[in-house]
Each structure stands twice: as C-alpha cells, then as structure tokens.
Amino acid sequence: MQAKLQTAFAQGQALKIISGLTNFDRDRVAAVVRAADQGGATFLDIAANADLVRMAKELTDLPICVSAVEAEAFVAPVAAGADLIEIGNFDAFYAQGIRFEAAEVLALTQQTRALLPDITLSVTVPHILALDEQVALAEALVAAGADIIQTEGGTSSAPTHSGTLGLIEKAAPTLAAAREISRVVSVPVLCASGLSDVTAPMAIAAGAAGIGVGSAVNKLDNELAMVAVVRSLAEALQTVNRAAIAR
Predict the structure, then answer these.
(1) Interacting residues of 199 by C-beta distance below 8 A, sequence separation 6+
(2) Is 99 within 8 Å of 128 (Cβ atoms)?
(3) What PANTHER family would the database entry show (predicted)?
(4) What is the mean pLDDT of the chain?
(5) Which residues share a beta bridge with 43?
(6) Cα angle for residues 204, 209, 211 (degrees, 5° grid)
(7) Could you tell me if 95 and 68 are in contact, meaning their C-beta atoms sit under 8 angstroms apart?
(8) Across the chain, how many H-helices and E-strands are there?
(9) Cα 220 to Cα 143: distance, rounded to the nearest angstrom
(10) Which of 161, 239, 150, 163 is nearest to 200 (CA)?
(11) What share of the chain has pLDDT > 90, as a percent?
C-alpha cells in the first residue's frame, strides 16, 4: 500500500471517491477525478478500464483504485498504472437482481490474489448477507489476502425521515457492518455506501479507517458542486481527527 494512503488509514482520514463500477463515460469520470483531486480526497475508485486509468493519471496524482467483479478484468488496468484494486462496489448490480454470495466473493478474492499477488487488494462485503455472515466473510477474505475490507448498505436502507435523521437512517447498515467487522480484522475497514458529511464521523467512531462515497458526488451535474461535496467530506474527517488529538 502506498505510504500516503497507509497514513490516511492509520489516521482515520482516508476518503475514497467512487465514480462507479459501470461508469465508462470518460467525461463523467474525468469530472469526478477532478472533483476528488480539488476537494481533498485521498484516493479514487473508477471502473476497471485501462483507458480510464491512463486518463485519470493525467488528471491527478491521487492513487487510483479500479473496481470489477471478474479477476481477469483487473489485469489491463493494473498494467496501465492502477495503484490498487477493488472487488465489489456491488450496488450497481442489486437493481438488476444480481446477488453476490459469500462463497462467490471469497472465490473471486482467491482467484484475483493468485492472478495479481502483489497489488493492494480491497474487497467489499455484500450487505445482502446477515451481519454475522458479513463478519465471518470479512475474516475469510483477510485470510485469503485482502488488504482492505469495504462495507456497504446504502441501497438497502429506507429512511423514513428527512434531514439529519434521514441521513443517519440511510447510513445505519454500513455503519453497523463497519463496527462489527473492524472489531475482528486487522486490516483497514473502509465504510462506504449511503454516507454523507453528517455520518462520515460516525463511520470513524464505529471503527472504520476511512470512508467511500459515490453517488453523492458522481450523480451531480455541476463540477463545482462535486468539489464542494468532496471538500465537506474531507473536512468532516479532519474534524474527527482534530477532536481525537484534542482529547
């Protein structure tokens, strides 16, 4: 793992901005990359595509993570310069009725690690699993070579309130997973899916070493608004760190 990224995880300040596993639109990905760079993100997560990696590398010095759900899909992007890889960001598939079970995710992790033994590997634990099953899978994934565990859950939540209470309700599944998984694994846990600047500090308090945010940024049409959201997330994490130092 890159030293700067490792430091960010150690300090509980890692901020990953996700452009989308199925987003291959160069202009949209470029906008997210620029927003992440200007807003103070720690690293980026883009679709596993060599051309997108090369483009991102021209726009930013931030570490580039690529996401896919097939081991072979990582080879070309890694050769193009991707710094780390992510099995997951499964949210894009749930609306299509596609599930990812524990055995499937573990097998994919084993295949990917065998194919790419040296790259930093992050793996998402599917939120469709019961919480105890998520914990068990996370332990198995680390044993299989995962360097980072990512949680999810935003798409499964159904907030019944607006405002701050609604934001907390939306983040509850991924916060719960981060809490339970971080207690049993020795690698960084990245809390993702359904987070905001309101719930980012809660993720760190729950035991996460960082957060991942996608739709709150990549669904915006205004690049200045994208930068503002990234900046608000980065500042929320910095506030947590300052509070910890003060104590």
Answers:
(1) 167, 168, 170, 171, 175
(2) yes
(3) PTHR36895, YCF23 PROTEIN
(4) 93
(5) 16
(6) 75
(7) no
(8) 11, 8
(9) 38
(10) 239
(11) 83
